[in-house]
Amino acid sequence: MALITRSEWQDWKVHPVTKAFYEAALERIDEAKDALSYSAGVDVLQDRLLVGLIQAYREMIDFRVEDIVETDNGD
């Protein structure tokens, strides 16, 4: 796995494309929650799919770089 520095991570987080990507993920979460609010219980497999989608997008949004970064001073 490629390692990145904290400063590279911070640069990426503030990039306009990254911000747009995260906004799109949040919209997908809202759409899935909306779909569940109208149809939960009708199709259990569809419910599970939507719940999994929400969880995946949230995990992506909440991702923290601490587990994969090198410190800026080479540690």
Description:
Helix content is 68%, strand content 5%. The protein is mainly alpha-helical. The protein has a domain at 16-66. It is elongated, with a radius of gyration of 17 Å.
Q: Terminal Cα separation, in Å?
A: 17 Å
How many helical elements?
3
Multimerization status: single chain
Give the amount of beta strand, in percent.
Answer: 5-15%
Principal-axes geometry comes out as elongated
- Unreliable spans are none
Average pLDDT works out at 88
The major β-sheet equals: 2 strands, parallel
Q: How do the SSEs run, as a string of H and E?
A: EHHHE
Classify the secondary structure makeup into a structural class. mainly alpha
Overall number of strands = 2
**What would you report as the Rg, rounded to the nearest angstrom?**
17 Å
Q: Helix share of residues?
A: 55-70%
Largest sheet, spatial ordering of strands:
1-2
